[in-house]
Amino acid sequence: MAVRACGLIIYRRLQPAPSSKVTDSIEYLLLQTSYGTHHWTPPKGHVDPGEDDLQTAFRETQEEAGLQASQLSLIEGYKKELHYPVHGKPKTVVYWLAEMKDCNTEIKLSEEHQAFQWLKLEDACKFAEYEDMQAMLKEVHQFLCSRE
């Protein structure tokens, strides 16, 4: 059976400069793992027994980034499943999209992560080494731009 994990793609909007587009002010939260290859990823984790996927995404976000569900706005209409092998076993990760209500809210990392960055799309794609993660970030950005 495939390993199942869930998480949130979290973004914040900074005050845009008068000359810039609104979408230029969007930054995405990525966390750097403190294990393995120290890859960068949105907060996510395995589904616990009796928990639904969205509960998992919010619990993992709280554990890994210190963000409460009340500090985030879930964005309707975006949900994405990624499928890839980990140690030879299939893994499914379901992501939702959430906006920070206050862009200055402090991030509090667990010991699972050693660093975090708020990154504009181009930099977020550089940090996210995996092609499917890069594609998803671009898709999210396109989704947000289409809602402006």
Automatic annotation (TrEMBL):
Keyword Hydrolase: yes
A Pfam family recorded for this sequence: NUDIX
Keywords carried by this UniProt record: Hydrolase, Nucleotide-binding
Record-level Gene Ontology MF annotations: bis(5'-nucleosyl)-tetraphosphatase (asymmetrical) activity; nucleotide binding
Entry EC number(s): 3.6.1.17
SUPFAM superfamilies hit by this protein: Nudix
BP GO annotations: AMP biosynthetic process; ATP biosynthetic process
Catalytic activity: P(1),P(4)-bis(5'-guanosyl) tetraphosphate + H2O = GMP + GTP + 2 H(+); a 5'-end FAD-phospho-ribonucleoside in mRNA + H2O = a 5'-end phospho-adenosine-phospho-ribonucleoside in mRNA + FMN + 2 H(+); a 5'-end CoA-ribonucleoside in mRNA + H2O = a 5'-end phospho-adenosine-phospho-ribonucleoside in mRNA + (R)-4'-phosphopantetheine + 2 H(+)
Stretches assigned to the Nudix hydrolase domain: 1-141
Superkingdom of the organism of origin: Eukaryota
UniProt function note: Catalyzes the asymmetric hydrolysis of diadenosine 5',5'''-P1,P4-tetraphosphate (Ap4A) to yield AMP and ATP. Exhibits decapping activity towards FAD-capped RNAs and dpCoA-capped RNAs in vitro.
Family membership noted in the UniProt record: Belongs to the Nudix hydrolase family.
Protein name: Bis(5'-nucleosyl)-tetraphosphatase [asymmetrical]
UniProt organism field: Struthidea cinerea
